[in-house]
Each structure stands twice: as structure tokens, then as C-alpha cells.
Design brief:
Elements: H1 10-17, H2 23-34, H3 36-41, H4 44-51, H5 55-64, H6 70-81, H7 97-117, H8 121-133, E1 137-141, H9 145-156, E2 163-166, H10 174-177, E3 185-190, H11 198-207, E4 211-217, E5 228-232, H12 244-261, H13 263-279
Parallel strand pairs: 1-2, 1-3, 3-4, 4-5
Helix pairs in contact: 1-2, 2-5, 4-5, 8-12, 9-12, 12-13
Domain HTH rpiR-type: 8-84
InterPro entries: Homeodomain-like_sf (IPR009057), HTH_RpiR (IPR000281), RpiR-like (IPR047640), SIS_dom (IPR001347), SIS_dom_sf (IPR046348), WH-like_DNA-bd_sf (IPR036388)
Organism: Verticiella sediminum
Length: 282
């Protein structure tokens, strides 16, 4: 399906209709634009109470959007919720800073526990040994995954001199994917919201012979082209995903790389520190 023929999203329908709505409907529309997850979660009466409008207003509102019923609108909103839009994570509620801090801390702990419960230490070591033996390590990340790709490359450079982050500024992936070979490894960060071509990118790397580690959130489907697939839990009690588990995984990979590289890693680390001292960079 081409972008021109793709059906409009739920939120696009609401935004397009705002200018033509009656005052009560517009108030409901603005509420839904700010907190679309409310419509996905509640029935018509509950939504009416939250937006301070009547149930009849809710019914008229969804019909103006082109839905046959409130359930049809809610079904569409739920489908859009699965894409990972931050707007669907926004909830009206208690703004007490102590409550928010406690909720975020507990969620971060839970995300770490759930992430590592599904990752076997032997699988991590198998992957790290492949990284150390690779001719090149390609680290790919878009959107939220880009800073993690840059961070992990920086750490892995301490033990491997052939680590490349993709994509670079002004570059296309094809300019680098043409150089991937069967002696290489690739680490791909596919965190919500993923770019639409992510499966093709993973498959292209694997088809070139690279052993691929795919790092995603917990909602990603299994990717058969990846040799390893680690899912990091990213749930959060607010409008942003919690990436504590992703950073922890990056740290684990870098630490195990240093430990498993042994003496070779220490030689390279000493050389790096000597040059840093010589150049007076730090």
C-alpha cells in the first residue's frame, strides 16, 4: 500500500475534524488529541466524564470522524496504540513528583528484571566472542536507537578497531551495506518507534553474511534473519519509553567484550590511555 492510498490514522482524523466541530465536540477532540490512550482504554461514558462532555457528544464526535460506532473508533485507536506513539502513553492524573519518581524507579527495576530473565548469559558470551573475532562490527541505529548505537561503538572501540556506526550524517545505508561481508557482525537497534524498513535492513545484513544481533523493545516480532534477538522491556508510567534496560544491555556487552578479549584488550587499552596522556586530551 502506498502512502497516498494508506488509510488515515485515528489521530489524523481527529486533527482534521477539529476546525469543523461544535464547541463541546471540539473540547472532546482536543482532549483526545492530548490523551488518545483514554479513548483506547475507556468506554463512551467514562471518556465523556473525563472530558467533561455528555455521552451524546461522544457519539456525535465519533460519527463526525467517520466511524459507525464508538467501538469502531476505539478499535482503530487501539491499533494505533500498538505503534508506540508517545501520545498514547500520556495520561491525565496525579502530578505529585514523589509519586512519579517512585513509579519510574519501580518500572525501571521491573524492566531490568524482565529483560534479563529472557537473556541467557551463554548467549551473550557467544555473541560477544563473534564480535571480537569479526573483521568489522557495524552498529546500526535510527531515532531512539541512534544514541545507543553511538554509545556502544564508543565502548567497543576499546577492544576492536573496526567498529562503524550507521547511518552517518548525510549518508545512505547502501553506501556501507555494500561493504558488509561474511567476516562481519552487525548490531541493529530496532526500538519503538521503528523505521518502516527495519526488517529489510536486518535481512540485508544477514544476506551479506554478517552475524546479526537485533536489539529491540519487547513488542517486536521474532526476526529469523538475526542470529541473536534480545528484547529490552521499555514500559514506563508516562509519555516516554524507559530505556534503562537498553543502556544496561549495552554496558553488559561492552564489559563482556573487555573481559573476554583478555590480554589483547589490556594492550589496546594501555595504548589508548598512553596516547590520551601524550595528547593531553583528558
Amino acid at each position: 500500500m502506498t502512502p497516498a492510498s494508506a488509510p488515515r490514522s485515528f489521530l489524523a482524523r481527529v486533527r482534521d475534524a477539529l476546525g469543523s466541530l461544535h464547541p463541546a465536540e471540539r473540547r472532546l477532540g482536543e482532549f483526545v488529541c492530548d490523551f488518545p490512550g483514554e479513548l483506547a482504554s475507556y468506554n463512551a461514558q467514562e471518556l465523556a466524564s473525563l472530558a467533561n462532555v455528555s455521552k451524546a457528544t461522544v457519539s456525535r464526535f465519533v460519527r463526525r470522524l467517520g466511524y459507525a460506532s464508538y467501538e469502531d473508533a476505539r478499535r482503530h485507536a487501539r491499533e494505533e496504540q500498538k505503534t508506540g506513539s508517545r501520545l498514547f502513553l500520556s495520561l491525565p492524573g496525579d502530578d505529585a513528583p514523589e509519586a512519579h519518581m517512585a513509579a519510574n524507579l519501580e518500572q525501571a527495576k521491573a524492566n531490568l528484571d524482565r529483560t534479563y530473565a529472557a537473556i541467557a548469559p551463554a548467549e551473550v558470551d557467544d555473541m560477544v566472542r563473534e564480535l571480537l573475532a569479526a573483521h568489522r562490527i557495524w552498529v546500526v541505529g535510527f531515532r531512539a536507537g541512534h544514541p545507543f548505537a553511538a554509545y556502544l561503538r564508543w565502548q567497543l572501540l576499546q577492544v576492536h578497531d573496526g567498529v562503524v556506526t550507521l547511518p552517518g550524517a548525510g549518508e545512505t545505508l547502501g553506501e556501507h551495506l555494500a561493504s558488509v561481508g561474511d567476516r562481519d557482525c552487525a548490531i541493529v537497534f530496532g526500538l519503538r518507534r521503528r523505521v518502516s524498513r527495519m526488517p529489510q535492513i536486518v535481512q540485508s545484513l544477514a544476506a551479506a553474511g554478517a552475524r546479526v544481533l537485533y536489539v529491540t523493545d519487547e513488542g517486536a516480532e521474532p526476526e529469523k534473519a538475526a542470529r541473536w534477538h534480545f528484547r529490552c522491556h521499555t514500559a514506563a508510567p508516562g509519555p516516554l519509553f524507559n530505556h534503562v534496560a537498553v543502556m544496561s544491555l549495552c554496558h553488559l556487552i561492552a564489559m563482556r567484550a573487555i573481559e573476554l578479549a583478555g590480554g589483547a584488550a589490556r594492550v589496546r587499552l594501555r595504548a589508548i590511555e598512553t596516547l590520551n596522556d601524550t595528547l593531553d586530551e583528558l
